[in-house]
Design a protein that fits this description.
Number of helices: 20
Shape: globular
CATH superfamily of the largest domain: Vaccinia Virus protein VP39
Structural class: alpha/beta
Number of strands: 12
Number of domains: 4
Oligomer: single chain
Helix content: 40-55%
Distance between the termini: 69 Å
C-alpha cells in the first residue's frame, strides 16, 4: 500500500471528519515520518486540493454514486481518489484507482473495495459526461459547485461584487498561496538576506507592495532554513505586513497590541521602532502568548512584554496611558481562504454577527487606553462589512472624540494607485481585496483620539 496516499487520507480524515486545521494536520503528519521532498509535496497537494475542492468533488461523486450512506473512511478514499482523477493530470488513472482500492482494503471490507473500484473507474471512463449547474440559470449554485465554496458565501459575494468578480475571488482562494516572508531588518538588510537565500538555491523575489517582504520558493521545510533559525525573517502575508506600517509608532513610544498572537505584527511593531519602544502584547490564551515569546526570542526582539488579558479590559487597566494601539481583532477570516483550506467549510453568517458584537466590545473597551492624540489601528483579515466598516463607523458615531486619520501617508505608493482603495484610504480606512490585489483580504482603519 502507498504510504504517501495513506498519510494524505489520514490528514483529510482529520480535517473533514474531526475538524482539524489543514496546516496543522499536514505539518504534524510530515513531522512523524521520513518523507522525501517529492512525497511531502504530493501529500500536501492531495490534502489541500481535496479539502479546497470538496464541493466540486462531492457533486461529481453524487452523479456516479446512488448509495446514500457511506462509511467515513470510504467516503474520504473516494474524495481523494476523485481529486487525483480530475485535478492531477500527472497522476495516471491506474495509480489513482489502484491505490484507492488498496486503501479500501485497509479501511473497509470486500464490498467497499469493489464499490471504490467501480466508482472511480466509472468516473475515469465518463469524465466527459460530468455536468455542472448552468451559470445563467443559477449563478450562485454554479459558482458554489464549480469553484467549491459554500452557497451562503457565494451568494453574499455575488451581491457585493457581482458574478465575474466572485468567480475571480473563488479562483484566487483555490490557488496556491505564496510563501511570503518579512525580513527582520533589525538583524539583516533585505538585499543581504535575498543574496543569502539565493546562494542556498532558494528562489526569491520582492513582494509587490510590502517594503520588507520577499516571496520564496524551492525549499522543503521553512524551519530548516538556516536564516530562519537565525531569526533573519518570519513568515507573514504581504497584506498583514501593511498593518503595523499603518500604525507607524514612533521610537520610544508605548504601544499596545491587544490581540497579539502569534506575534507577527507585534514583532513588526518592534522592528519599525528599532526595538526601542515599550510594546505590551496581550492575548487571552496562555499557549498563544508562548508563540509570541518564541517568535520574539528567535527574531532577537527585546522590547515586547506579554501578558494574559482580555482586550476589552485594557481601557480600564491603562486609561490614557498608551501612545499607539493595535486592534487586530478576532474575525471570520474570509480574506485568508487561499491560505486556510478548511476555513470556508467552518464559517457561517451567524458567526459573522457574533464576531461583530465581540469586535465592537473590543474597540469600545480598549480604545480608552489611548492618550489624547493617541493613534488606533483597527484591522481584520476579512471582507465582511459587518466586521469592518460597520464596527468602526458605529464606534465613531458613539465616540465623537475619535476621528478617522488618512492612511495615504502610510501605505505603499503602488497600492494607492487603485483609485477605489485610495479614495477610502484618504478618509482613513481601506479594504484589500484578494481578487484585486493578490494578497490576503485585509481591512485596515486608522483612528485618532482627539479629546
Amino acid at each position: 500500500m502507498d504510504r504517501v496516499r495513506d498519510s494524505a487520507l489520514k490528514a483529510v480524515y482529520e480535517v473533514l471528519e474531526k475538524g482539524a486545521f489543514t496546516n496543522i494536520a499536514v505539518n504534524n503528519l510530515l513531522k512523524e515520518a521520513n518523507f522525501s521532498p517529492l512525497e511531502r509535496r504530493f501529500i500536501t497537494e492531495i490534502v489541500y486540493g481535496t479539502v479546497k475542492n470538496k464541493n466540486s468533488i462531492e457533486w461529481i461523486m453524487k452523479i456516479f454514486v446512488s448509495k446514500k450512506k457511506i462509511d467515513p473512511w470510504i467516503n474520504y478514499i473516494l474524495l481523494t481518489g476523485i481529486y487525483q482523477l480530475i485535478y492531477l493530470d500527472k497522476v495516471p488513472v491506474s495509480a489513482a484507482c489502484n491505490e484507492s482500492v488498496n486503501l479500501a482494503k485497509k479501511y473497509g471490507n470486500p464490498g467497499s473495495v469493489k464499490f471504490v473500484n467501480g466508482v472511480l473507474r466509472n468516473i475515469a471512463r465518463n469524465q466527459d459526461e460530468i455536468s455542472f449547474p448552468d451559470i445563467n440559470e443559477d449563478p450562485v449554485m454554479h459558482i458554489s459547485v464549480v469553484y467549491s465554496h459554500p452557497q451562503w458565501l457565494v451568494r453574499r459575494w455575488v451581491e457585493e461584487y457581482g458574478v465575474k468578480d466572485t468567480i475571480t475571488l473563488c479562483k484566487h482562494n483555490n490557488s496556491k498561496s505564496p510563501n511570503t516572508i518579512r525580513v527582520n531588518t533589525l538583524k539583516v538588510d533585505i538585499e543581504d538576506l535575498k543574496e543569502n537565500l539565493l546562494n542556498k538555491d532558494i528562489s526569491v523575489k520582492k513582494t509587490l507592495y510590502a517594503p520588507e517582504g520577499l516571496e520564496i520558493e524551492k525549499f522543503e521545510q521553512i524551519d530548516k532554513i538556516e536564516s530562519f533559525i537565525q531569526g533573519l525573517f518570519i513568515m507573514q502575508d504581504e497584506a498583514s505586513m501593511l498593518v503595523a506600517r499603518c500604525l507607524s509608532p514612533a521610537v520610544g513610544s508605548t504601544v499596545v497590541d491587544a490581540c497579539a498572537a502569534p506575534g507577527s505584527k507585534t514583532t513588526h511593531l518592534a522592528q519599525l521602532t528599532e526595538d526601542k519602544s515599550n510594546i505590551l502584547a496581550f492575548d487571552i490564551h496562555s499557549h498563544k502568548l508562548k508563540l509570541i515569546e518564541q517568535n520574539a526570542r528567535r527574531l532577537g526582539v527585546m522590547s515586547i512584554q506579554v501578558q494574559k488579558q482580555e482586550a476589552q479590559r485594557l481601557g480600564d487597566l491603562y486609561e490614557r496611558q498608551i501612545d499607539y494601539l493595535l486592534l487586530d481583532v478576532p474575525c471570520s477570516g474570509l480574506g485568508v481562504l487561499r491560505r486556510r483550506a478548511d476555513l470556508r467549510w467552518k464559517k457561517n453568517q451567524q458567526q459573522i454577527k457574533e464576531l461583530a458584537k465581540l469586535q465592537s466590545e473590543i474597540i469600545e473597551g480598549a480604545s480608552r487606553c489611548l492618550k489624547l492624540g493617541g493613534t488606533l489601528v483597527y484591522s481584520t483579515c476579512t471582507m465582511a462589512h459587518e466586521e469592518n466598516h460597520d464596527v468602526v463607523n458605529m464606534f465613531l458615531k458613539k465616540n465623537k472624540n475619535y476621528r478617522f486619520d488618512s492612511l495615504l501617508p502610510y501605505i505603499p505608493t503602488r497600492l494607492a494607485l487603485d483609485p477605489d482603495l485610495s479614495y477610502t484610504a484618504e478618509k482613513g480606512f481601506m479594504q484589500i481585496l484578494p481578487q484585486r490585489h493578490n494578497m490576503d483580504g485585509f481591512f485596515i482603519s486608522r483612528i485618532i483620539r482627539e479629546s
